[in-house]
Amino acid sequence: MLEITNLHVKAGGREILKGVDLRVKAGEVHSIMGPNGSGKSTLAQVLAGRETYEVTAGKVTYQGRSLLEMAPEERACEGLFMAFQYPVEIPGVGNTYFLKAALNAIRKARGLEELDAMDFLTLAKEKMTRLEVDDRLLTRSVNEGFSGGEKKRNEIFQMAVLEPTLAILDETDSGLDIDALRIVAAGVNSLRSPERAILVVTHYQRLLNYIVPDFVHVLVDGRIVKSGGKELALELEARGYAWVEAEARAAAPATA
Amino acid sequence: MREGRPTVTAVAHEVDRYLESFARLEAGAAAKEWTWFQPVRRDAMARFADLGFPTVRDEDWRFTNVAPLAQTAFAPAPEDGVSPARGQMAPFEFPGLTGSRLVFVNGRYAPELSSLGPLPAGVTVTSLAQAIPAHPDLIQAHLARYAEYHQDAFTALNTAFVEDGAFVSVRRGTVLEEPIHLLYVSTETPAPVITHPRNLIVAGEDSQVTVVEDYVSLGDGVGFSNAVTEVVVGQNSVLSHYLIERESPQAFNVSTLRVHQGRSSSVTSHSVLLGGALVRNNVHPVLAGEGGDCLINGLFLATGRQHMDNYMKVEHASPHCGSRQFYNGILNGQSHGVFHGRIIVHKDAQKTDAKQTNRNLLLSEDAQIDTKPQLEIYADDVKCTHGATIGQIDEDAIFYLRSRGIPKDSARGLLLFAFAGESLQRMKVEAIRTHLEALVAQWLPQGALLEDVR
């Protein structure tokens, strides 16, 4: 479904990703872990189409198409979704209007009929109940004045409504209490299916107790330096990142 | 061009034009109905001759050069002008509003286009000229008693040349729920026409009324609407005023709203500027009685070479009064916006709570905004805050919307509409707000993509 080959990315003149390779098949859950500043969020944002990053080399294929040539909205319409690490507050734009516009843009692209206000509300209410999201959220402006936890839940709620083919979670677990974490995990797990793939970007192993990944990759200094199964996450939790960084330095060609 | 005007002779000539037409006005028929007003008229004319048109050296006009307006040889509206058909008013109606509508064509009251609904006892809605014989006491007690024709050249000009406008009076204890729509229509005329709409609104004690002042054009005339509205708000009364400027892109408009607020009165002033080439919107409430409150809410959208100047002068003259100013501007093309917010707190106006916020979005490299707070505080126990922002559309928000599947243009439109919506949301009359939302959506380059925003 997703194939990243030798991806190099710069931001503000500094190289952040230095040749990332990753292959994600339908039905799989991958986790990308790594210390702060390793490039995890950059990878997530580049996949979503953030234009402030400059791709200097490499390619990304998504469902057989070149992802990097697609506009962010086109990627969304093709089923890609990124849950933001820092969801943006948009005063004056109602959450309901926003999400309905998004869903209908995506449905239109998929050749489905657009939902009217009533059908949309029925769908939204059903998802909200399942995710224990307060339905007053619908009447407020997008993320405006939301607490950190509410913002993250709103991301998962949007994901549940938009039903993406490839979901990327950018540190969705950071700063969440255990109740919110369970809800986020439940939202993600209910999305798991043989047709879909999920990429969980996280700093902490904790979320992976609830969303059990098929593969764990460690990103250090812009490269994936180690990959393994779910037990790798536990090892990182127990031993920290220093040993992987040391291994990576030892294995790397002497460029520095 | 920020410079003054070229020569002394040219400046004198600009004023002479008006002295000549004033002589004709005095000799003409209009003057006879206004005999009692003659001394004021002459006084105002003399003041205008002294003051002349303001220049950018004048602190209150620093950002607005009125030379194009001063140099145009405007003529009074022709007596035998063609009257538009009733159907031509349709685009300017607010669907859902069923109250009274007074229509003025090139400054003259057009009864055939107006409709006076059934009004509750104690409410008068009519043309000012017609009201003079019927309500001499009220009119003589209030007309030209508030607007500062001694200080302001445009108010002086209006006062010297006043012929008609709207008169609204609401008796003590009377509530008029349906807004009154005052529609000023400029038609295309062979020569540029100047009009001086003069409105007087008197709201008695414990009353409630909403008035909409609406400037529109039929065709592309280079007219100049020089309007003055005096509003007297009695104790404990609630008054809402809407100003809508949607004249042709060639039009000139100077509108002055002067509000005199009694004890515990509550006033809301909304303005939406969309049209006109050179627009100056003066809002000047005086909180004269204790415990009064006013909300001044504005939205200005300029593009091309439009110039829109919002000049606030909020005077706190009594204790325990509150005022809030919120102005949002969106500027595109080579347009120029101005927000000049004066707050004057007089010596006795203790416990004043005054707030001012001006937010601006610049959509192009060449658009320009000047924003200037000016606080003059002579009392020592007051709270006054002000803030201004100038920025571009939030690119993080654009990306967020796009990442959810919303196309780039729609995302931009949505954010601009939301920014304008901050102002529109403060407008409580749904029929007016809905219509204005549609006008704003039409104005936005991406407006067509926002059909079901509301």
Approximate shape of chain A: globular
Number of domains of chain B: 2
The class by helix and strand makeup of chain A works out as: alpha/beta
Measured by residues with Cβ under 8 Å of the partner chain's Cβ, the largest interface is:
A-B, 32 and 24 residues
- Main beta-sheet strand count, sense and barrel state of chain B: 11 strands, mixed
Largest sheet data of chain A = 6 strands, mixed
Helix amount of chain B, in percent?
10-25%
Classify the secondary structure makeup of chain B into a structural class: alpha/beta
Overall helicity of chain A: 25-40%
What's the CATH first level of chain A?
Alpha Beta
Instruction: Work out the oligomeric state of the chains in this entry.
Output: heterodimer
CATH superfamily of chain A: P-loop containing nucleotide triphosphate hydrolases
Spans of chain A with pLDDT under 50 lasting ≥5 residues? none
| Radius of gyration of chain A (Å) | 18 Å
Residue stretches of chain B low in confidence (pLDDT < 50, at least 5 long) are none
Spatial gap, N to C terminus of chain B:
41 Å
Provide a count of the helices of chain B: 10
Number of strands of chain B: 21
Describe this structure in words.
The complex is a heterodimer of chains A (256) and B (454). With 256 residues, chain A is of the alpha/beta class. Chain A has one domain (2-251): Rossmann fold, CATH 3.40.50.300. Chain A has helices spanning 40-48, 72-77, 95-109, 117-130, 148-162, 178-191, 230-239, 242-251, and strands at residues 2-11, 14-24, 29-33, 54-62, 65-66, 80-83, 90-94, 141-142, 166-170, 197-202, 215-220, 223-228. In chain A, the strands form 3 sheets. In chain A, strands 6-9-10-3-11-12 form a 6-stranded mixed β-sheet, sandwiched between helices. In chain A, helix 5 (148-162) packs parallel to helix 6. Chain A is globular and about 60 Å long. Chain A starts with a strand and ends in a 5-residue tail after the last helix. With 454 residues, chain B is of the alpha/beta class. Chain B folds into 2 domains: 8-289, no CATH class; 393-454, no CATH class. Chain B has 10 helices and 21 strands. Chain B has helices at residues 8-27, 30-33, 38-51, 67-71, 128-134, 136-142, 153-161, 395-403, 408-424, 430-443, and strands at 75-76, 101-105, 108-109, 123-127, 166-170, 180-187, 193-195, 198-203, 208-218, 224-233, 238-246, 252-261, 266-273, 278-287, 293-302, 307-316, 322-331, 336-345, 353-362, 368-377, 383-391. In chain B, the strands form 2 sheets. In chain B, strands 1, 4, 5, 7, 8, 10, 12, 14, 16, 18 and 20 form an 11-stranded mixed β-sheet that branches. At the A-B interface, helix 2, strand 7, helix 3 and strand 8 of A face helix 8 and helix 9 of B.
